[in-house]
Amino acid sequence: MPAAEPEVVLEREVPAPQRNRRAGSRAAATDAAGLGRARAVGFVAPALVLIGVFLVFPALWTIYIGVTDYQLTGAAAAAPKVVGLANFLSALNDGLFHNAVWLTVLFVLGSAVIGQNLLGFALAWLLRGVRPWLRRTVESMVLLSWILPSTVVAYLWFAVLDRNGGTLNALLGTPGTAWLVTYPMASLIVFNTWRGTAFSMLLYTSALAAVPPSQLETARLVGASGWQTVRDVVFPHIRGHVLTNTLLISLWTANDFTPFLLTAGGPNHASETLPVFIYRQALEGGQLGYASAVSLLLLLGNLLVALVYLRLLRRRG
Amino acid sequence: MAGLGGTETLGRKSRWAILDLVVVVYALVPVLWIMSLSFKTTKTLTDGNFIPREWTLDNYKAIFQTSEFVRALGNSIGIAIISTVIAVVLGTMAAYAVARLDFPGKKALVGVSLLVAMFPQVSLVSPLFEIERSVGLFNTWPGLILPYITFALPLSIYTLSAFFREIPWELEKAAKMDGATPAQAFRKVIAPLAAPGVFTTAILVFILCWNDFLFAISLTSTSASRTVPAALSFFTGASQFEDPTGSISAAAVVITVPIIVFVLLFQRRIVAGLTSGAVKG
């Protein structure tokens, strides 16, 4: 049913308004398709309405709840009071919040900025010249680890890291090591590097295709080492891609909820990154107001990272 | 000369071969392990063997006999397909307009799309929970479909407008010169050219909806609308006294299969779709 909609809209208003047919002054603004502004708005409206109702409105609601003492149950659930910045202030004094911020920074730096970035680039770099089938195979393996449902992936890693009879313990000959309990953050960082490398690898693969082969050849002829080639020849070409990639994977990692499935933040908050902290505060602790305030702080952190990135990107030009 | 080049490439090739082997093992071991578990009998589940000693399909038979799983699978398929179709249709309309025309609201749309990439999904859970409970959408199909569409829309608009921008708009002009109406131009010229992009986007959106856990677990309360990723965490096996490892493995394999099939069949398109926006932007 919905598939017929665009055509219906189009045919109803034929012919297109004459004013949109003139050759425009700006190429991007030229209405080549003869859509007409009104109709263009009509095309975008359904998407905008949905985004407004199910994304912007809840987001605003989050901001509102963040300044109240709203709770899941009890007196404050029936009649939440506006408490101003009290939630934000108590976050600043909350040791568990500090812990969550620190773990999130660790998680993002370790698994995204370093882990996924380096592994993704290394794979893209090493796979440049190999036979297509080999490249395709490696690509699909890496893609798979990225694309599998997070519940399945978490379950897979349980099997690998299991204390008794886990694959890792069998491989390393360390029976009885409970990886997720003894080294929760290290396990999560390795896990997320494994999980997310695909995006970096694919992005760098297409970025590397844009590096002129002649320059690589020149570097080889003057006897540049692999590292020198990457630093002086390749990097200047792909700087923008490196920044874009780092920004995206950092944001995804900071917002990632999968750690909850692996460790649920435990043991004793040792792997409680911010999204897990927010979820536990909201749904387990019932502190909806406080949890919303913390989500806002996470969003602000993300915006800050994005601004730094934009500055770096602009400096290039 | 040729011989020299040959030994050099041979050395490099073997280095690559080793590296690739490591990558393949690294990526595949967990998946194969789960497959192996799903074919093991209850007795041999914990024997630590990579290849099952006794093969059995009992785990699969068992999960397909529990209404819990079958229901969840139905929910997953229905919800993911409906969400994908609607998100792709709405996304195509919006992306076409975004790629072809400046209009009021365009900046807002692009800005919101960027903001969504930064918004922690977890922070929307409690407001959506409240909203859905107050309007009666909680624990229904639309209660999951609508948020999925919303979360998929920015992604599909982003990817699709990258595809639309690649189609030279002289084509529409030419079509109009030949007397085609805008509707005909869209249907006969643009739609066929955009089809690969639309298809790619549909795969990505489907995967997004199919894989979601957070909304599925927070916006449902019974098997009436619980999808497989959420149901999996409630899974206790076919009978109460049975170790659920085998059943969970089988269920995990069942929801993984469509994704693996997608990756194998449409790898190139998925890669193109994932990198198109980011590389050009």
Using the 3D structure, state the CATH architecture of the largest domain in chain B.
Answer: Orthogonal Bundle
Count every helix of chain A, treating DSSP H or I runs of 4 or more residues as helices. 15
Order of helices and strands of chain A: HHHHHHHHHHHHHHH
Helix content of chain A: over 70%
Within CATH, the superfamily of the largest domain in chain B carries the name: MetI-like
Rg from alpha-carbon coordinates of chain B: 24 Å
CATH topology of chain A: MetI-like fold
Mean of pLDDT of chain B: 78
Low-confidence stretches of chain B: 1-6
List strands and helices in order, with pairings.
The complex is a heterodimer of chains A (317) and B (281).
Chain A (H helix, E strand, L loop, with lengths): L4 H8 L24 H30 L8 H4 L7 H7 L2 H32 L5 H16 L2 H12 L5 H6 L6 H4 L1 H25 L4 H9 L4 H30 L2 H6 L10 H11 L3 H28 L2
Helix pairs in contact in A: 2-15, 5-10, 5-12, 6-10, 10-12, 12-15, 14-15
Chain B lengths: L1 H37 L19 H8 L1 H34 L5 H13 L6 H11 L5 H26 L3 H8 L4 H30 L2 H5 L9 H5 L12 H36 L1
Description:
Chain B: It is found in: Cell membrane. Chain B: The chain crosses the membrane at residues 16-35, 77-96, 108-129, 141-164, 185-208, 248-266. The complex is a heterodimer of chains A (317) and B (281). Chain A is mainly α and 317 residues long. Chain A has one domain: MetI-like fold, CATH 1.10.3720.10. Chain A contains 15 helices and no strands. Chain A has helices at residues 5-12, 37-66, 75-78, 86-92, 95-126, 132-147, 150-161, 167-172, 179-182, 184-208, 213-221, 226-255, 258-263, 274-284, 288-315. The two termini of chain A are 48 Å apart. With 281 residues, chain B is an all-alpha fold. Chain B has two domains: 1-56, no CATH class; 65-280, MetI-like (MetI-like fold, Orthogonal Bundle), CATH 1.10.3720.10. Helix content of chain B is 76%, strand content 0%. Chain B is built from eleven helices and no strands. In chain B, helix 3 runs parallel beside helix 6 (141-166). The radius of gyration of chain B is 24 Å and the shape is globular. Classes of the chains: A mainly alpha (317), B mainly alpha (281).
